[in-house]
């Protein structure tokens, strides 16, 4: 015969302290150590901008694989940390990024990147000279002497007269002729990398190159390092623009740490728009872009309105 068990209510007993307790251990309520009561606790108040800054300060460090944090994940964490809706945050970031794309600095180096000789001629004229003065002269020179051989045979007095309004016209005319002669005799080749005699202070050395003990690092070799007058500005311009033209998958531009303000602004734009990263001319890529950084960069681009073409 089967017994039928009826549910019973455990009896309550009063302890010596006067509290009621169950006579069954199964009825004891155990507070988990992983949860704490929220009653009576007041949530801390944070300023959204402070939380955003703190969040991305943490994200700017390298992870174990030496890769930067994912910008999408970073923006999600930032939106969550600031208490904003993720969709709204991403929508604003998308709007800012689209606007950033319309503000790309237009530099003559990029337009002539497929012809290293023209790039060298352009940077020789642009060195310590405003683009609005140098670029028209560049087009006049190319129209008068369209090839390296033509310019190598140019009369230095005629050339000096053409660039007279740029200043240091005697030095520049002789340098342009010397560059063209060397270019004809030894054209650049990707298979013939020439070492550079130029150096850079430690603070502008790329993190991909180890500086010597004297605090200076040597510029990496390029196919144009052997031409007369190829200083830091010329080498940086070649590495940023022509290296990409020669090798579409090249990441050479990511290792350049220029001192020229227009090249710096271009790299800030390219790092932000192409890679989604914040970039500094002293530290390189330092973390994922934020809404605050994009707004600041857009304001800087609109103020400078770099157009040297």
UniProtKB/TrEMBL annotation:
Entry protein name: HhH-GPD domain-containing protein
Keyword Nucleotide-binding: no
SUPFAM superfamilies the record matches: DNA-glycosylase
Source superkingdom: Eukaryota
Keyword line: Nucleus
A GO CC annotation given for this chain: nucleus
Residue stretches of biased makeup (Polar residues): 1-10
Keyword Nucleus on entry: yes
GO molecular function, one term: catalytic activity
Main subcellular localisation: nucleus
Protein localization: Nucleus
UniProt GO BP: base-excision repair, AP site formation
Domain HhH-GPD: 122-203
Gene3D superfamilies on file: Hypothetical protein, domain 2
Region annotated Disordered, chain positions: 1-44
């Amino acid at each position: 015969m089967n017994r039928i068990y009826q549910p019973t209510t455990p009896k309550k007993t009063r302890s010596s302290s006067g509290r009621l307790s169950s006579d069954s251990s199964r009825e004891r309520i155990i507070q988990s150590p992983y949860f704490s009561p929220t009653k009576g606790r007041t949530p801390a108040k944070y300023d959204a901008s402070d939380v955003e800054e703190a969040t991305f300060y943490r994200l700017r460090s390298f992870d174990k694989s030496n890769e930067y944090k994912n910008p999408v994940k970073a923006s999600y964490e930032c939106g969550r940390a600031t208490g904003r809706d993720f969709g709204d945050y991403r929508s604003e970031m998308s709007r800012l990024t689209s606007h950033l794309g319309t503000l790309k600095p237009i530099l003559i180096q990029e337009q002539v990147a497929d012809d290293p000789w023209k790039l060298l001629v352009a940077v020789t004229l642009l060195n310590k000279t405003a683009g609005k003065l140098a670029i028209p002269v560049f087009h006049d020179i190319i129209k008068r002497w369209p090839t390296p051989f033509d310019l190598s045979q140019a009369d230095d007095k005629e050339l000096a007269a053409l660039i007279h309004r740029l200043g240091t016209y005697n030095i520049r005319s002789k340098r342009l002729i010397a560059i063209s002669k060397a270019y004809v005799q030894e054209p650049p080749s990707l298979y013939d990398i020439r070492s550079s005699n130029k150096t850079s202070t430690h603070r502008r050395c790329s993190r991909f190159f180890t500086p010597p003990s004297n605090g200076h690092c040597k510029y990496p070799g390029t196919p144009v390092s052997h031409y007369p007058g190829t200083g830091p500005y010329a080498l940086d311009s070649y590495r940023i623009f022509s290296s990409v033209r020669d090798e579409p998958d090249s990441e050479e531009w990511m290792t350049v740490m220029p001192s020229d303000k227009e090249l710096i602004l271009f790299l800030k734009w390219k790092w932000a728009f192409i890679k989604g990263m914040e970039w500094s001319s002293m530290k390189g890529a330092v973390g994922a872009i934020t809404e605050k950084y994009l707004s600041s960069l857009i304001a800087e681009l609109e103020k400078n309105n770099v157009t040297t073409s």
